[in-house]
Amino acid sequence: MKPTHKLLFVLCPMLVLGFIYYSSGKLHIHVWGQKTQFDADLTPVALTKGAEVKRTTELEADITVGRIVGSEYDKQGFLLKLDTKLPLDLRYKYGNLSEGVCKPGFAAAKMTTIYPKFNKLAPMFLDRNFKHLAVVSNYLPPFGFKTQERIIDSILTVTKSYGLGDELDSLSCKRCIIVGNGGILANKSLGSRIDDYDVVVRLNEAPVSGYGKDVGTKTTMRITYPEGAIQKPERYEKDSLFVFSAFKPLDFKWLRQMVFKEKLRGTEGFWKSVAQYVPREPTEMRILNPYFIQEAAFQFIGLPRNNGIMGKGNIPTLGTVAITMALHNCDEVAVAGFGYDMNTPHAPLHYYETVKMSAIKESWTHNISKEKEFLRKLVKANVISDLTNGI
Ligand SMILES: *[C@@H]1O[C@H](CO)[C@@H](O)[C@H](O)[C@H]1NC(C)=O
Ligand SMILES: *[C@@H]1O[C@H](CO)[C@@H](O)[C@H](O)[C@H]1NC(C)=O
Ligand SMILES: *[C@@H]1O[C@H](CO)[C@@H](O)[C@H](O)[C@H]1NC(C)=O
Fold this sequence. Notes:
The chain is of the alpha/beta class. The protein has helices at 3-27, 37-47, 56-70, 88-95, 106-114, 134-137, 149-159, 166-169, 191-195, 212-215, 249-259, 291-301, 318-329, 368-380; strands spanning 175-179, 199-203, 221-224, 241-244, 285-287, 332-336, 384-386. It is built from 14 helices and seven strands. Helix 10 links the parallel strand 2 (199-203) and strand 3 (221-224). It binds 2-acetamido-2-deoxy-beta-D-glucopyranose (3 copies). One 2-acetamido-2-deoxy-beta-D-glucopyranose is lined by residues 92, 95-96.
């Protein structure tokens, strides 16, 4: 045998094995027990592992198949063809529910059809076992909680509750809506539709009082960071959870002072003024699992890893973090008030103030356009529904 042929015999199986390894995460859509066409095609190749060597021509054919499979996904691991249907058993299951009835597992099932790597398990909030969350324990804030373990421990000792509350936690099917702050919400009278959701998530200081007709009156939780938190104690609505999302180590110190009702000592290191007092009992406070920031940034959107440290353009916006949380913890997910339309510079940026769209500046921390690409995939694939059609 010629040396070049020998080389081919060695090289081809290696290429095939390399490809199988690379694509195994993408091909194994085993979660719903469905085998794909390509699984069947590749099985014989997998069996050649190390031992029998196939004829070169066959291997080449297999590699060609491989290339086709590889190109079915984008860089982030999302299927390019976003109108892929659910497995038949789920289509029947959901098809047999009456119109408007909550579909158990719907968002996660849809997500899995376009993003096979999706693993639903990720708790909403940190609880006393948080140190066992391996994926976040090795990252600094905002992508994890490394260096903050002691402070988190002391906070969680007094907050004592780590769920949504008995009533919501016991629901067998939860419909969640994330209400963004976009001006697109104004004058659409979506308030009562928003209030119909089991879980209404609001962000930062977006007001409810006076805007009920358009944004609803119910707030299950308000996710916030120090600079975004409502500053006037009287503006906090009753009966909502104060959910804290940390972006820098200093944020945890601030939270401890809010939880223990201590006087805030110095506000150095914050990029704008922060709330001095949060009128909430510790049992109404939660710490959002930082995994959602990490997953949104690196897996879903594909922002620069920067060695796992906050850097230019690698922090997802709070809205996208909230959507990521909901994909893992809600059966159905909707959004409203998301999306900036740069073609209408005179439209209001937020529903509650007169600042115009044109005031938006290029952000150092966020990458709005890349983030929008991700959200578009979710909407196009019907993983989430967008009540205001802004995404
Ligand atoms: C309801 O389920 C049965 C099988 O369980 C199926 O044959 C039928 O098509 C389903 N109905 C709808 C509307 O999907
Ligand atoms: C909403 O309606 C009010 C009252 O009619 C009007 O003043 C305001 O400009 C409208 N806002 C938008 C964004 O259309
Ligand atoms: C956003 O991502 C795109 C594509 O990766 C890149 O070209 C652009 O510079 C990024 N913008 C920011 C603000 O980081």
